[in-house]
Amino acid sequence: MCNNTPVDGLSIYCLADEFYDPLNPVTADPNKDIVLYVDGLVIRPTLAHVPAIWVIRDGGTTADPKGVIIRVTRTETTTNSAVAGVQVTHEGDGYVDIDVTDSEMSGGGITVEYLRTVESGVVTRTPTGDIDITVKGTTISTTDALFRGVDAKHEGTGDIGITVKGTTISTTGQNAEGVYTDHSGSGDIGITVEHSELTAKGDIDAGGGITAVHTGSTGDIDIRVKHTEIVTGFDTTDSVTGHNDGIHVQRKSTGSGDINIALEHTGITTKYMGARGIYAQHEGAGHIILDLNPGVTIDTTGPGVYIVQQGTTTESDVILNARGIAVTTGEESAHGLWADRQGGLGDVIMDIRDSAITTENNQAWGIYATSQRGADGDVGVRITNGRTTTNGSNAHGIFAYHGSANDPPRQRRRRHQDCPPKSPHRDKKHSPSFELGGHLLLRHIRPTREFRRRRHRHAGRLHNDSGGPFPRHRCL
């Protein structure tokens, strides 16, 4: 049940089950969907902690799910006291489908929560259903801590999907990201941002522009960004805690699921200490695949890109493909592109073409590929054309490291069995590879030779123009 069009100072509220609005108690039927259309309104609630558009949904079962549908067009919302412009709480089985178009939201953005039911400290119900949020042609500005532009939290089973197009999002509060997702159940996270601007200027402990965190059992994380500008932090010389990363992705449990990130014609600028352009961390089973396509520029204080796989139970690769990009970093030890595998089975593959990588400080390496902490797999780096410039001391242009030299032979991967026995008279002076428990591949391709890539999501192989694979290892 929803109230009528509000007068100035009130909000639109829709309630299901025995929930009560602070102004008008309402008891509604928990067995019906909530469908809300808002067009051409100005909504400015004056009460503290009251969202402009507020929906609470309970009820529904897996066999008979009950959902929430909200359509907002040409509407202006203004809220205060750290509340959202559109807020939905769902504790049953169903779905949430929100579309905000050509609107203005000030004070708070869009918040959706799929929550478990807890009684006496025991979880008695876990929700099931998808969250879909679409924002087009809209301006969102938030000023309070923890109030993001678009915020989705799921504690049950279901996917989170967020699409932002032609939209400007600006946040200034602490831990207030532009787009934020948090999944602690089972399901995928998908975020698409196109032709938009995201600015996050508050002190943030995780990501500033786009953040996706998954702590559940299964589910992929998929981030797609095109023709977008992401800026985090103020112009300041002060030491500011937190990261304020441009894009921040974490698979923080031992669960399974891939991380896929793709950027095209997108700029990322970070201004606080340690703030990374792109950060992706995986603690479970699954590949990390990062595709940086033409028109991507990254200008950071901290590392430009850092992607790391730390799971130890299943073979999982780290793959970074860059084509026609520019990366500049400013701080000490702020590497340009860094791909890392820590423990477990999995390769590190970097294929960089027609790109410019610049680091300005000491111990800031341009291209850095590592396999360490007992990791068992290959390290492959291929660079075609482009330029790598390092301006500090002990700042290598390209550094590749394999740290499993002392691993016992039983930990070496079975693919080594394909190699013939070594000849004691074989001249290895010109060999491009080194065996250190896994394999280390360093290869520089002549500028006249063109390469293309065929990405196999679970294989991580690279192919040249004649169809032959870029080998995952070379026998010594």
What's this, in brief?
With 476 residues, the protein is an all-beta fold. Helices cover 0% and strands 45% of the residues. The termini are far apart.
Key features of this structure:
single chain, 476 residues, mainly beta, 13-stranded parallel β-sheet
Structure in words:
- This protein has 476 residues and is an all-beta fold.
- The strands form four sheets. The chain has a 24-stranded mixed β-sheet that branches. A 13-stranded parallel β-sheet has the order 1-4-7-10-15-18-21-23-25-28-31-34-37, with no helix packed on it.
- Strand 38 (433-436) and strand 39 form a beta hairpin.
- The protein is globular and about 65 Å long.
Distance between the termini: 72 Å
How is the biggest beta sheet arranged? 24 strands, mixed
Poorly predicted ranges (pLDDT <50, ≥5 residues)? 17-28, 405-439, 443-476
Overall form: globular
What structural class do you assign from the helix and strand content?
mainly beta
Q: What is the CA-atom radius of gyration, in angstroms?
A: 25 Å
Number of helices: 0
Could you report the average pLDDT, rounded to the nearest whole number?
A: 79
Strand content: over 45%
User: What's the count of strands?
Assistant: 41
User: Which percent range fits the helix content?
Assistant: under 10%
